[in-house]
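mind reviewing both lines:
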Amino acid sequence: MADGSPISDDLRSIPRLLARNARAFGDKAAYREKELGIWQNWTWAETAEEVEALALGLMTLGLAPGDHVAIVGRNRPHFYWSMVAVQAAGGVPVPVYQDSVAEEIAYVLDHCGARYAVVEDQEQVDKIIEVKDRLPNLETIAYVDPRGLRKYDHEHLKPFVEVQEAGRAARTELGGELKARSDALGWDDTCVMLYTSGTTGRPKGVVLSNRNIIETSKASADFDHLTQGEAILAYLPMAWVGDFIFSVGQAYWCGFCVNCPESATTMYENLHEIGPSYFFAPPRYFEERITILTIRMEDASRIKRWMFWTAMDFAKRVGPALLDEKPVSAMDRFKYWLGDIFVYGPVRNRAGMSSVRVAYTAGEAIGPEIFEFWRSLGINLKQLYGQTEASVFITQQPDHEVRADTVGVPSPGVEIKIADSGEVFYRSPGVFQEYYKNPDSTASTKDEEGWVATGDAGFFEEGTGHLRIIDRAKDVGKTASGALFAPKYVENKLKFFPNILEAVVHGAGREMCAAFINIDLTAVGNWAERNNIAYASYQELAGHPEVLSTIQGHIEEVNASLAEDDMLSGCQIHRFLVLHKELDADDGELTRTRKVRRNIIAEKYDDLIAALYDGSKEVSTETEVTYEDGRKGSIKATLEVRDAKVFEVKALEAAE
């Protein structure tokens, strides 16, 4: 369905796209879900029936046009049906992160005034009941999984299947009204409301219209030649705009199948079973897979380790050139073919990417070493640059023009300009309508001509037209010496090392840069087991002298690389410490999309930052933590502060 033709007015909403798909290829798979070890299948015709039944059922509960409906759960067909059913009945779907704590759910449901919620199970029901007295508008909670809920007070609870059964029973009575509501949906009516991750404050409700989603889905599908034959695995949070555009917008526009994993713990296994042709993952996913692969290779025989790393060194030179159809000698092609049989092919297969034709990463910058590693395996991994406010797409990388240091060219229909301050602005058919109930933020982000401020600093390369993003505009600064300070760039280089899960670099306005490090417990724990090093906790392992020395070596390797960079040579890390706990979204240190909340970390760990800069060799601290059951506690630790070797900066003047 992806072509260059204009969009018919008959396809001006997601429910209309569903009706088109049910007519045109009703017997083709629309959804698959693995449940109890068996893949279940729903065709487009069956999906249309499920959606209609749910829409009618919601109307029997009193859903009126304009009502907001919260949707909380993991990736399951039921929740994708819910989003389309709410739209068909004239409502506004509001997906919520399933791992949100009760307080976060309360904020979203209260802010949008949700009258109904469709949730997965007892866990989500409990969280909403906990804050129900703060949600005066909430009338009914529909749940999919009934386990554990039999003895609950069902005054405000309804099983999902019963809502659908009530809808089927009311088809004769309400069918005409549902059709009228669905037919009345226009280009500028709300398609979905998605909340931002809230890196600097409370999340904002981003209102996206049918035009935003459908025109963006068509343009991006045309760009990568997506067809009905694609298969994707829907495993990313449903409350994130990326999942919505891939698993709803593009899926309904193209008519391809959305596959839902059995659970988060079986995601890798299910990915291997599905073998998607179109794949998206944030940088952290690719970092984690390299960590797992590295651990396995460390446990392999000496010959296998030698074969793997020798083959990968060769692949880094030849693989990307083959992907980009650049000249490669016959001998190198033959060597790569052999490597593909014994190394690259098995690794791709193990990663579930044997059939991937197009893969994307976005959300934050990916380390160049990580990016090049996957492309060297023959996987067409590309970067895109986007935002919730843009319906995802601002730039994309065309095939054969893929590089680690740019985010590509403007996506079809997108205009970009760079302000004198270096901040990136864009406008496009995907630009959001407004921030819900927040006209001041809307006006400060989007001007009267439709230009949106991204908050990111970047520039266009001369000659190629590719956009390079330096960092968040508010995070880019200068050190006391005048050197450019771009923390995210340095952090991504550090996270290439399997032992480092997260890094936070400090240095704006200071005489030097310093860093917090989170170790990767899986990778470092595996190292400890192989070396017979006993440890009782993350904190104990993080403070082990050999672990600190290993991290110091990684930092010094990054410093050596930075010393050769004309722009960022002043970002070398002089001092560091390894944190005694993992940064956690439940503790407010990360967003639900795993982005660092720098202002909160700076406030929470001000004593540790002071120790990095006052010459201390160690620092004692006490930190509040949130346990899985929501209880609060605290942990005490004494952390070692280490100096790292810095290298001669040959071109500091160029960075000033």
Confidence is low (pLDDT under 50) at residues 651-656. The longest strand covers residues 452-460.
